[in-house]
From TrEMBL, chain A:
Residues 43-82 are annotated as: Disordered. Residues 44-79 have a biased composition (Polar residues). It is found in: Nucleus. The keyword Aminoacyl-tRNA synthetase does not apply. Its main location: nucleus. It comes from Nadsonia fulvescens var. elongata DSM 6958. This is Rad17-domain-containing protein. Pfam families: Rad17 (PF03215), RAD24_helical (PF25812). Belongs to the rad17/RAD24 family. One of its GO terms (biological process) is DNA damage checkpoint signaling. It comes from the Eukaryota. Keywords: ATP-binding, Cell cycle, DNA damage, Nucleotide-binding, Nucleus. One of its GO terms (molecular function) is DNA clamp loader activity. Residues 418-560 form the Checkpoint protein RAD24-like helical bundle domain.
Automatic annotation (TrEMBL), chain B:
It comes from Nadsonia fulvescens var. elongata DSM 6958. It comes from the Eukaryota. GO terms for cellular component: Ctf18 RFC-like complex; DNA replication factor C complex; Elg1 RFC-like complex; Rad17 RFC-like complex. This is Replication factor C subunit 5. One of its GO terms (biological process) is DNA repair.
Length: 668, 352
C-alpha cells in the first residue's frame, strides 16, 4: 500500500475550503459544519489571531449570503444586526457555559460547553455521565459499548462531548478541530484529543468500507496499548449504509467482535466505544406494496433494534441510553438563553411574537432545528414584520385568539410539528388539551380535563395532517392496538363495540377514499371515546390515566404469516411429490399441520415433514399462554404484554414500552 | 411411508367408497366429449380424489407421474411472484391463492401457454389438456372474468376443472359454462365404513365387541364434522398416540378448534374489556398461523351458539353474517374479528 492511496481515504470534507461549500455544509449537518469552528480554548489562548482569520474566511461570505435572503433594500441594516462576539460580549457567565466563538451560526456559537447549558434533562445527563465514567475507568467488568439513541436533535452528541470533557477534565472538543480526531488509518496515533471518531470515507480505492471500519477499530485497540494513561473514547456516529443487509451484518459483526473480544490477563481493557444512533421512524414505506412480497424487507425506518442484532443489545457489555425529544420547557430554557445573549438580533421583535415563536418552535423537540430556525427567523424579520413571509404578528391582538397564531408560524418556519406515531395515537385515544385553556386544569390528580369539540377538532386535525397519508398502514393499526385502554380501560362494552365497528367499517372502504376514511374514523373514534359515559361502579383499572402504548402488531403478524406460509408450501411440495397429489393449502393449514405433527412424533417412519422432526408445524396454537394467565390479571390490561412475548418479540420490543405522556412533559 | 389419508386414497373411480352413482357419471363423461367441469362441495368430501381418478380414466396412468416445480412470474409492476405448479404431460394443476392479487395475469398467461401448444403425444387418448384450478372460489372477480374468455377461446385444446368449496363466490358466466358437479360430504355412516376399512388394512387393534367397534368409528366420524380427511387424520393420530383404539380413547380435535371453542366459552361466561384483550391475543395468534379468518369467524360463531341463550342466537348469526361480509371487503381481518367479538359481547350483555 503506498502513501497516495492512503491519503485518498481521508474523508473528503476536510479538504473543503471554499466558503460556498461551507455554507452548504451548515445546511447539511451540524457535524460537518463544525469545520470552521474554533473552540473556546483556542479563543482564550490567542483570541486576536484566530478570530480575525475566521471573520475573514467565513464572516464575509455569510454576510453576502444573508443579503441574498433578505430584501436587498434592507441589506445594510441586516449587516448591522449580525451578532458579533467582539462587539457584543454578552454576560460573562453565559460566555463560559457556551462555546461563544465568533461570527458563526448560533448552533455552533452556543454549543453547550457545560452540563448546565445542555438542553437535556439533568437526570438523563447524570445517567449518561455515570455510565461513561464507569466505562472510562476501564475496569474489566465495565461496559464496552454504549449506545445512545434518540431522535435527531435530542442532544445526544452534545451531551456525550460535555460528559467526556467533564470526566476527563479536557475542554469540550468539537469533532473536526483537527483532522486527527477523525479516522485516518495511518495517522491515528497522533490524536491527543481523546475522542476518536469514525467517519465513513467517501471514497475508497482498495478496501471495502467495512474493512476500513475494521481497520479503524483495530487501530483504536492498538492505540490503547501505546498510550496507557490517556483517556480515549471511540465514537461511531457516522453509520455505514445499514440499509444494505450485508453491510449491516458486517457492521454488527464488527461491534460484536469488539464486545466479545477476550482480553488476556494483564492487558489493558478496551477504550469505551460509543455508538450514536439518530433514530428515525419513517412511516409508510413498508406498507407500499411490500405486504404480500415475502422477499421485500424494505423499510427505511432506522431504530436501534433494527440496526443492531439482539446478540449485541443483550450483551452484558452493552449499555443503552435512550434520549427522548427535548421537552418543551427545557428547550425553551436554552432558546431563551440564546435570545438573552443576542439582544441585538431581537431588538425589533415584539416580545409577544417572540414568545409565540419560541413556544411553537420548542414544541418540535428538536433543539438543533429550533436553534437554526430561531436564528433564521430573527435575521429575516424586521420591525415585527417578516420580510420573507410578510406575515403580520403584532402584540396582543392575536395572542388569545382561538386560531392561535403560533400554528400559522409553525407551518412557516418549523420543522413540521413532530407528532410521533405514539403521540398521534395518544391524541386520538386520550384527546389533547394542548391548545386550550383547559390544559391548565391538568395535574389536579386524576381529574381529566374537560375536553371540548374544539379540542377534539384540533387534535384530529394535527394527527391527520401528519399521519393522514399513512392512515391505512400505520396509524389505524396503531390506534386499533391501543383503543381498548382508552379512559383507563373503563369504557363500556357497547362503546368498545361501536369503536371496533368503526375500524371494521373503515377497513372496507376503497383505497381511493383513504383520506375520507381516515378523517371519518379519527373523528368518530375521538367523539365516541369522549362522549362515552363513565360506567358507574367500575374504577379505571389503571392508576394513571395514561398507559404505555403498544406498537401495532399487524406487521409482525404479517411477517409471521409469511414465514408460516412458506413452511406450509414446503410441506405441500414434499408430500405432493410423495403421494402424487397436491393437497389444498387450507387442508394443510387446518388439519395436516396439527395431526401430522402428532403422527410423526409417534412414528418417525412416516414421512410427513421435510426434515422429519417430530413437531407441530410452526408451533402449536395456544401453547404460548393459557387463557388463565390472561384472566388472572398477571397479563391483564395493566401489563399488556400478553402478545408481546409471542408475536412481537423481535423488532418492536423496545417500542412497546414507550410511554405516552400528554403535552410537554415527555421527559418525565 | 406416507400418511394413511394419502396411502389409502382411491386411485380409480371404481374404488371410490361412496357416491357411487357420481363416480359412474364421471366415468361416462370421459367416454364422450369431456366438458369443462366445476366440482364443488365441502372440504374433505373427496373432490380432489374424484378429479384425479377422472383424469386417470381420461389419460391413463401417465397422469400420476407428476412433477412439482415452482415458477417465478414477474408481474407488470416488476414484482417477483413464486408459485407452485403440479403437472404431468397431460394436465396441470394450479392454486391461485399463491398468487395473491395477481391471479388474473398469471392465470391468463399460464392458460394461454398451455392452450397454444397442442397435444404432442400422438398416442394420447384425448387431444386436449386439462388444467385443474384448486380453490377456484378464492379467485378474484377479475381472474374469473378472464377465465371465462379463455374458456371460449381455447376450448379445442383445453379443458378446465375447477375445484371449489362453494359456488357462491363464482361468477354466473363461469357457472353457466361449466358442468356443475356437487360432491356432498359423506354421511357419518359412510365415514365409519371408510374408517373401518382403513383400520382393517392397517391392522389397528380394535375392540372385539361389535357395538364398541362401531362406536369408535361413529365417534370419530361425529368429531370429524363429516370431513373424511379430518376423520382419517384423527384416526391415525389416535392410533399413533395410543397404539390401539377403544371407546375411551380421547379424540384430539385440532389445536385451533380447541382454542376457538375455549374462547367462545369464555365469552359466554364473562364479558369485559379484559376479555376483549384476551380475545385479541388469541385472534392474532390464529391469524398468524394462517388460519383463514372466515374459518375462525365461522367456528367461533357456531361454538358461541352452543353456549348462549336462545334469545341471543339470532343476533350472533346476524353479526356473523355482517362481519363475514366485511372480511371479504376489507383487508385487515383482525379488525373485523375483534369487532365481531366486541359486538357479540354487547349483544349478550343486553339480553342477559
Amino acid at each position: 500500500m503506498n502513501r497516495p492511496t492512503r491519503t485518498k481515504r481521508k474523508p473528503v470534507y476536510h479538504q473543503l475550503s471554499s466558503d460556498s461549500e461551507i455554507e452548504v455544509q451548515y445546511e447539511i449537518k451540524k457535524r460537518i459544519g463544525l469545520s470552521c469552528v474554533i473552540s473556546k480554548e483556542s479563543i482564550e489562548s490567542n483570541p486576536p489571531k484566530s478570530s480575525k482569520s475566521l471573520t475573514r474566511s467565513t464572516g464575509s461570505k455569510k454576510q453576502t449570503t444573508l443579503t441574498n435572503f433578505t430584501n436587498p433594500n434592507s441589506s445594510s441594516s441586516a449587516y448591522s444586526r449580525i451578532p458579533r462576539f467582539n462587539s457584543d460580549p454578552g454576560d460573562v457567565t453565559f460566555k463560559k457555559e457556551y462555546n461563544t466563538a465568533v461570527d458563526v451560526r448560533w448552533l455552533e456559537k452556543y454549543r453547550p460547553l457545560t452540563s448546565s447549558a445542555l438542553a437535556l434533562h439533568p437526570r438523563k445527563y447524570a445517567e449518561l455521565k455515570s455510565q461513561l465514567e464507569q466505562m472510562i475507568r476501564k475496569t474489566s467488568a465495565s461496559p464496552r459499548l454504549l449506545v445512545l439513541s434518540g431522535p435527531a436533535g435530542s442532544a445526544k452528541t452534545a451531551a456525550l462531548r460535555v460528559a467526556f470533557s467533564e470526566i476527563t477534565g479536557t475542554p469540550v472538543i468539537t469533532a473536526t478541530d483537527s483532522t486527527t480526531s477523525t479516522f485516518d488509518p495511518v495517522d491515528i496515533g497522533g490524536s491527543d484529543r481523546g475522542i476518536l471518531e469514525w467517519s465513513t470515507p467517501t471514497h475508497l480505492e482498495d478496501v471495502s468500507m467495512m474493512n476500513a471500519l475494521q481497520d479503524f477499530l483495530s487501530e483504536a485497540r492498538r492505540k490503547r496499548t501505546m498510550n496507557v494513561t490517556e483517556k480515549t473514547l471511540v465514537l461511531i456516529e457516522d453509520l455505514p449504509n445499514v440499509f444494505h443487509p450485508e453491510t449491516r451484518q458486517k457492521f454488527c459483526n464488527e461491534l460484536y467482535q469488539w464486545l466479545d473480544l477476550s482480553l488476556p490477563v494483564g492487558e489493558l481493557p478496551l477504550p469505551p466505544l460509543v455508538l450514536i444512533v439518530s433514530e428515525m421512524i419513517i412511516a409508510g414505506d413498508e406498507a407500499n406494496g411490500a405486504i404480500f412480497n415475502k422477499f421485500s424487507t424494505i423499510n427505511d425506518s432506522l431504530t436501534v433494534e433494527k440496526l443492531l442484532t439482539r446478540d449485541i443489545l443483550a450483551h452484558p457489555f452493552t449499555q443503552r441510553i435512550k434520549f427522548n425529544p427535548i421537552a418543551k420547557t427545557i428547550a425553551l430554557k436554552s432558546l431563551k438563553a440564546i435570545v438573552h445573549a443576542e439582544p441585538a438580533a431581537f431588538n425589533n421583535i415584539t416580545s409577544s411574537s417572540l414568545s409565540h415563536f419560541l413556544n411553537s418552535t420548542a414544541e418540535g423537540g428538536d433543539i438543533r432545528s429550533s436553534i437554526c430556525t430561531l436564528e433564521f427567523w430573527a435575521q429575516s424579520s424586521e420591525g415585527g414584520r417578516h420580510l420573507l413571509f410578510d406575515m403580520p404578528v403584532r402584540s396582543g391582538e392575536l395572542g388569545e385568539c382561538s386560531i392561535t397564531p403560533t400554528r400559522y408560524h409553525s407551518s412557516q418556519y418549523n420543522r413540521p410539528a413532530n407528532v410521533g406515531l405514539f403521540h398521534a395515537v395518544g391524541k386520538i385515544i386520550y384527546g389533547s388539551t394542548n391548545d386550550s385553556l383547559a390544559s391548565k386544569s391538568k395535574g389536579k390528580g386524576m381529574d381529566r380535563p374537560q375536553l371540548t369539540d374544539q379540542d377534539d377538532n384540533n387534535a384530529v386535525m394535527d394527527v391527520i395532517q401528519q399521519w393522514g397519508q399513512w392512515w391505512r398502514y400505520k396509524l389505524s393499526p396503531a390506534i386499533f392496538e391501543n383503543y381498548l385502554g382508552a379512559r383507563g380501560g373503563s369504557l363500556g362494552l357497547d362503546v368498545l363495540g361501536s369503536c371496533a365497528d368503526i375500524f371494521s367499517m373503515e377497513d372496507t372502504m376503497p383505497v381511493a377514499l383513504d383520506q375520507i376514511s381516515c378523517d371519518v374514523e379519527m373523528r368518530h373514534l375521538r367523539n365516541k371515546i369522549r362522549t362515552a359515559p363513565d360506567i358507574i361502579g367500575v374504577k379505571p383499572t389503571i392508576s394513571s390515566s395514561y398507559q404505555p402504548l403498544k406498537y401495532p402488531q399487524t406487521w409482525s403478524m404479517i411477517t409471521q404469516q409469511a414465514r408460516e406460509r412458506e413452511k406450509i408450501m414446503g410441506y405441500l411440495e414434499t408430500t405432493g411429490g410423495l403421494c402424487g397429489i397436491l393437497k389444498g393449502q387450507y387442508d394443510a393449514i387446518l388439519y395436516h399441520r396439527y395431526y401430522d405433527g402428532i403422527i410423526t412424533r409417534q412414528n418417525p417412519q412416516v414421512v410427513g415433514w421435510l426434515d422429519n422432526k417430530p413437531r407441530v408445524l410452526g408451533g402449536g396454537i395456544g401453547s404460548g399462554h393459557t387463557t388463565e394467565e390472561i384472566v388472572d390479571g398477571k397479563v391483564g390490561i395493566e401489563s399488556r404484554d400478553i402478545e408481546r412475548s409471542k408475536l412481537n418479540e423481535d423488532t418492536w420490543k423496545q417500542h412497546s414500552i414507550y410511554r405516552f405522556t400528554d403535552g410537554d412533559d415527555i421527559e418525565d | 411411508m406416507s400418511l394413511w389419508v394419502d396411502k389409502h386414497r382411491p386411485r380409480y373411480l371404481e374404488n371410490v367408497d361412496y357416491h357411487i352413482e357420481l363416480s359412474q357419471r364421471l366415468k361416462s363423461l370421459t367416454t364422450s366429449d369431456f366438458p369443462h367441469i366445476l366440482v364443488y362441495g365441502p372440504s374433505g368430501a373427496g373432490k380432489k380424489t374424484r378429479v384425479v381418478a377422472t383424469l386417470k380414466e381420461l389419460f391413463g396412468p401417465a397422469v400420476e407421474k407428476i412433477k412439482i416445480d415452482s415458477r417465478v412470474f414477474t408481474t407488470p409492476s416488476n414484482k417477483k411472484l413464486e408459485f407452485t405448479i403440479v403437472s404431468s404431460i397431460y394436465h396441470m394443476e394450479i392454486t391461485p391463492s399463491d398468487m395473491g392479487s395477481f391471479d388474473r395475469v398469471v392465470i391468463q398467461d399460464l392458460l394461454k401457454e398451455v392452450a397454444q401448444t397442442q397435444q404432442v403425444d400422438l398416442q394420447a387418448k384425448q387431444k386436449f389438456k386439462v388444467v385443474v384450478i384448486n380453490e377456484a372460489d378464492s379467485l378474484t372477480r377479475d381472474a374469473q372474468a378472464a377465465l371465462r374468455r379463455t374458456m371460449e377461446k381455447y376450448s379445442p385444446n383445453l379443458r378446465l376443472i375447477l375445484l371449489a368449496n362453494t359456488t357462491s363466490n363464482i361468477i354466473a358466466p363461469i357457472k353457466s359454462r361449466t358442468l356443475l358437479i356437487r360432491v356432498a360430504a359423506p354421511t357419518n355412516d359412510e365415514i365409519s365404513t371408510v374408517l373401518a376399512a382403513v383400520s382393517k388394512r392397517e391392522r389397528v387393534p380394535l375392540p372385539s365387541n361389535e357395538a364398541d367397534y362401531q362406536t369408535v368409528f361413529n365417534n370419530i366420524a361425529f368429531a370429524s364434522n363429516r370431513n373424511l380427511r379430518k376423520a382419517l387424520l384423527i384416526l391415525e393420530a389416535m392410533y399413533a398416540q395410543n397404539g390401539s383404539l377403544n371407546t375411551s380413547t380421547p379424540i384430539p380435535p385440532p389445536d385451533w378448534e380447541i382454542v376457538i371453542t375455549k374462547l367462545a366459552a369464555d365469552i359466554a361466561s364473562d364479558r369485559s374489556v379484559r376479555r376483549i384483550v384476551q380475545a385479541r391475543a388469541i385472534l392474532y395468534e390464529l391469524i398468524s398461523h394462517c388460519i383463514p379468518p372466515n374459518i375462525i369467524l365461522k367456528t367461533l360463531s357456531f361454538s358461541l351458539l352452543t353456549n348462549v341463550q336462545p334469545l341471543v342466537k339470532p343476533d350472533i348469526i346476524d353479526l356473523a353474517a355482517t362481519y363475514d361480509h366485511r372480511l371479504r371487503l376489507g383487508s385487515k381481518s383482525i379488525y373485523h374479528l375483534e369487532a365481531f367479538v366486541a359486538k357479540v359481547m354487547t349483544a349478550i350483555e343486553k339480553k342477559s
